[in-house]
């Protein structure tokens, strides 16, 4: 059924794109070889809309689409509408490859967004071959930060974890920290970053556990943690696994003396529905944007409600919306003629640019193209994540 | 020592759940000669039905549990009639593959109908806190209750198979199906009942696991291979051996995870599985199958 669904989605996407490209499609002009036309600019996204990571990833591209629709309804950017073609890759490399080739053949101005570490190794060679840009993917691949044609807004998990460890210990005092980390590529970098940040904050790194998505019982880990009596437990795994771990920590009376610390999966509705009551006022989260419900998220929330009412307002859809806002702001700042080169010059010229209300100021430095310089530290209170302050990321 | 004891007790609790899941597999195998790979999917289905009954009808949890067990028993019968019953003389491999197909079908339907927004918090059946403490280690109410429920179900199964007509007919059918048929016993009706019973047991397992594992279409994945390991260690033909197998797997998993890592625990469990398959293929309590050549 999933394969059939994918085929139908792809067929519809192809028909839509084909229809839009047909001579009878009167509302749009031709595009040049960089995907830019007189009254439109094309972006291409390969994103898991279905499959195992579909539920968190689809809201991200829904966020792009909603904001672009809003911009287009206001007349576009300098009269140019932003068309974002989103294709489903179901988090499968062959599908992402096919999508990448199809999008490059349009051609699109850039690969835009996408969620997960699987697509970048597939899309980067296509982007390089076609001299395209690859803008704002949400992935944990270190090479994304140093490749000249890639620009990121989403920090590496190792940077996030190191920075949130430092920020937490600075604000709430140094202490003993235990790290529960998903056993995925990059795990060593994550552990090294947290150890270094703990040492710098004069805390004590008491241990770590690498977990998979298929742990049958978190009780042994909870017992192990309880024996170490940490002040902080840093968690980097999926929402479901985090919720299951917290169930075991509560059952074993093994919660940390100060805080549970986590990343954006702990701000998802899936996690909050399952565990918010167990971690009330006991959990801190590092977020790339302000959390849902924050006054600064109002514009994106109302746009999502208007153009994509079925999309949940969560950290993923807000991040997608923020990425679209940043693209629109960069397009606005780019002088005519808009080219991939002039667009890059705009991004590299930004210094603390307030391109999205949802994010702290954006600066892209060479050679490390990470625009985000800070993240938001939020606390879970009464079932919601509430922004406390921002903290700096390593540059 | 207290930590060790707590790991052993929580291991027994999770092992008993694995055994319960495996018990359904053994029951059906004894009745039909088919290893049911859809057992985990039936457990997931039962837990989803219970959850959806609660959210849609707003009934108390106990009523939802009864509804879910009844519904999955009916679905178990339906699956038998639609999927296993036609051409049921096609050979064991054919039937086993049908159960694999059934598993994928059930999970695909759950994904299609109910997966959006998962995982879902499942209502707590027991107090999430500690029932009592062993030194500094807590033994949760979940662990105590799961062990209690499994003991009751195990005793019930023992009494049924030992003292009731239908239980004795099952035992007879598992030993000599052809002779039972010649005696005029309707073996297909017995098989139908076995499917209903196994669906009910799966639902109980799903409902017991869902509060800890959170309700999702893949919530049984971590348990399935371990449950089949318990079945193989105990013996595919032994209704009592699966309990020993489950408890061994549960304790080994939790103790090795506590003092080592979960990866090491997985390694030890599957090494044990391979050792049993290599040196005692019928399992610790199973009977070797003898075929006339």
Tags for this model:
heterodimer, A: 395 residues, alpha/beta, Rossmann fold, 2 domains, 41% helix, B: 293 residues, mainly alpha, two-stranded antiparallel ribbon, 73% helix
Could you describe the 3D structure shown?
The complex is a heterodimer of chains A (395) and B (293). With 395 residues, chain A is of the alpha/beta class. Chain A folds into 2 domains: 30-155 and 295-364, Response regulator (Rossmann fold); 157-287 and 377-392, Response regulator (Rossmann fold, 3-Layer(aba) Sandwich), CATH 3.40.50. Chain A has 12 helices and 12 strands. Chain A has helices at 2-21, 54-73, 93-105, 120-129, 157-172, 187-200, 219-228, 239-251, 269-275, 298-307, 315-333, 340-349; strands at 40-47, 81-88, 110-112, 133-135, 150-151, 176-182, 204-211, 232-236, 259-262, 283-287, 374-381, 384-392. In chain A, the strands form 2 sheets. Chain A has a 7-stranded mixed sheet, sandwiched between helices. In chain A, helix 2 (54-73) packs across helix 10 and helix 8 (239-251) runs parallel beside helix 9. By secondary structure, chain B is mostly helical. Chain B has helices at residues 2-32, 39-57, 61-84, 92-114, 141-163, 165-175, 177-182, 187-213, 221-234, 241-259, 262-279; strands spanning 130-134, 137-140. A two-stranded antiparallel ribbon of chain B has the order 1-2.
Topology, pairings included?
The complex is a heterodimer of chains A (395) and B (293).
Chain A: H1 2-21, E1 40-47, H2 54-73, E2 81-88, H3 93-105, E3 110-112, H4 120-129, E4 133-135, E5 150-151, H5 157-172, E6 176-182, H6 187-200, E7 204-211, H7 219-228, E8 232-236, H8 239-251, E9 259-262, H9 269-275, E10 283-287, H10 298-307, H11 315-333, H12 340-349, E11 374-381, E12 384-392
Helix pairs in contact in A: 2-10, 2-11, 3-4, 5-6, 7-8, 8-9
Chain B: H1 2-32, H2 39-57, H3 61-84, H4 92-114, E1 130-134, E2 137-140, H5 141-163, H6 165-175, H7 177-182, H8 187-213, H9 221-234, H10 241-259, H11 262-279
Antiparallel strand pairs in B: 1-2
Helix pairs in contact in B: 1-5, 1-6, 1-8, 1-9, 1-10, 2-3, 2-4, 2-8, 3-8, 5-6, 9-10, 9-11, 10-11
